[in-house]
């Protein structure tokens, strides 16, 4: 235990002092964290011997995602989002269901041993994008604001929307339809997950923002505790919604939006959000190191060409074609549409879904889980290495268009 702790602490220190330099390269944090886990885990030197089980990894991934969703939402520019709401609206209402449908079709072609419901479950698990892996894109001011806010809003809500769909499919696959049929079960799950999530977000964030502002006016806030309020609210939103039968992801994201709006003029807003993001980055480091050391070391030998092909298609055609179709008619250049389609990284949400399905009794659980793991590995590498150069290319293109318009 102490050897693991020493290795993680030393790595966290080393990364913290070079993070600014690495941010200017093609390599993002998730790539470094995962490769460190692989290098020092059982596949590499064998120095890092983590004993996390599936539920332990799920909890870390959930907490990390909750903090990222809350802080990213709190940073959101609601004015830009309101003027360009059609981008996330189409991504969520058109592209998301089309992505699940395309994922199902490809699974039907490649995995003939899976049932129809298992194919739909796999497609749903890989439909939501990851706000944490896409952080370099949604937080970079070089990315045009409509695209940045659109991707941020999409990644904040699509995982929460997919939760009731996944639970519905699992219930059907395990023969738990209930007494009122499929449609009633679907409506019940959707209303429960989303409704409770939104309610919890309001119950936590509204009084939380009010109390924070009031205590700030009385100068009761202590400098050394500024990293705690946002982290505590994010975890409270997530955990309370989950305990109440709702979607913790939706609660965290909506809670962040509400908190950001209520504190938009507060002088300490950006300070406490930056402190909270630091805590989220530390959780992200632990999550991806564990993924590299534990998950990859146990699953890499199970990948075959069917799994690899599906994973590649999931990150390209299955994601990009629905995005391109859904954005038709909007004033976006071809390069911008391709950019939005490409940056649909799979990560923390899919890890959580994989653990949920892994604990089920589905006959095809092994193929489903391994396909999700393979897709996440490819996403970490491909999206992690392509974020910086493609953001720079998009920014240069936007700058060129602006200069042409002026002339």
From TrEMBL:
Per its UniProt record, what Pfam families does this chain match?
A: Na_H_Exchanger
Record bears the keyword Transmembrane: yes
Q: Where is the Cation/H+ exchanger transmembrane domain?
A: 27-392
How does the record say this protein sits in the membrane?
A: Multi-pass membrane protein
Claim: Transmembrane is one of the keywords in the record: yes
Where primarily located? Answer: membrane
Name the residues that span the membrane.
Answer: 29-48, 91-111, 156-173, 194-212, 232-262, 282-301, 307-327, 339-358, 370-395
Sorted keywords for this record are:
Antiport, Cell membrane, Ion transport, Membrane, Transmembrane, Transmembrane helix, Transport
Taxonomy, superkingdom: Bacteria
Q: Where does this polypeptide localize?
A: Cell membrane
Signal peptide range? none
InterPro entries xref list = Cation/H_exchanger_TM (IPR006153), Na+/solute_symporter_sf (IPR038770)
| Gene3D superfamilies assigned | 1.20.1530.20
Q: What is this protein called?
A: Cation:proton antiporter
Organism annotation:
Neiella holothuriorum
């Amino acid at each position: 235990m102490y050897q693991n702790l020493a290795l993680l602490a030393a790595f966290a220190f080393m990364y913290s002092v070079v993070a600014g330099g690495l941010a200017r390269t093609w390599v993002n944090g998730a790539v470094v964290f995962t490769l460190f886990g692989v290098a020092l885990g059982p596949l590499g030197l064998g120095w890092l011997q983590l004993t996390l089980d599936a539920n332990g990894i799920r909890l870390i991934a959930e907490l990390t995602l909750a903090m990222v969703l809350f802080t990213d939402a709190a940073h959101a520019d609601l004015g830009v989002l309101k003027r360009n709401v059609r981008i996330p609206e189409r991504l969520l209402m058109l592209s998301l269901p089309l992505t699940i449908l395309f994922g199902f079709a490809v699974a039907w072609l490649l995995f003939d041993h899976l049932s129809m419901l298992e194919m739909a479950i796999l497609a749903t698990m890989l439909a939501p994008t990851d706000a944490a892996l896409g952080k370099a894109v949604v937080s970079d001011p070089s990315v045009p604001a409509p695209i940045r806010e659109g991707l941020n809003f999409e990644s904040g809500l699509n995982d929460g929307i997919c939760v009731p769909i996944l639970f519905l499919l699992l219930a059907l696959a395990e023969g738990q339809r209930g007494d009122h049929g499929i449609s009633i079960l679907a409506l019940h799950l959707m209303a429960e997950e989303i409704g409770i999530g939104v309610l919890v977000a309001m119950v936590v964030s509204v009084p939380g923002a009010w109390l924070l502002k009031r205590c700030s006016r009385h100068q009761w806030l202590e400098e050394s505790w500024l990293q705690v309020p946002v982290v505590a609210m994010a975890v409270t939103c997530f955990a309370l919604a989950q305990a109440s039968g709702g979607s913790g992801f939706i609660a965290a994201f909506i809670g962040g939006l509400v908190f950001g709006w209520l504190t938009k003029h507060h002088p300490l807003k950006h300070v406490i959000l930056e402190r909270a993001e630091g805590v989220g980055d530390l959780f992200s480091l632990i999550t991806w190191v564990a993924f590299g050391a534990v998950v990859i070391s146990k699953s890499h030998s199970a990948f075959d060409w069917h799994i690899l092909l599906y994973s590649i298609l999931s990150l390209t055609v299955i994601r990009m074609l629905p995005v391109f179709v859904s954005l038709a008619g909007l004033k976006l250049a071809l390069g911008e549409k391709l950019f939005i389609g490409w940056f649909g990284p799979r990560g923390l949400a899919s890890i959580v879904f994989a653990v949920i399905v892994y604990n089920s009794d589905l006959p095809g659980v092994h193929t489903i889980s391994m396909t999700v793991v393979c897709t996440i590995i490819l996403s970490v590498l491909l999206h992690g290495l392509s974020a910086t150069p493609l953001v720079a290319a998009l920014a240069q293109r936007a700058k060129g268009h602006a200069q042409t318009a002026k002339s």
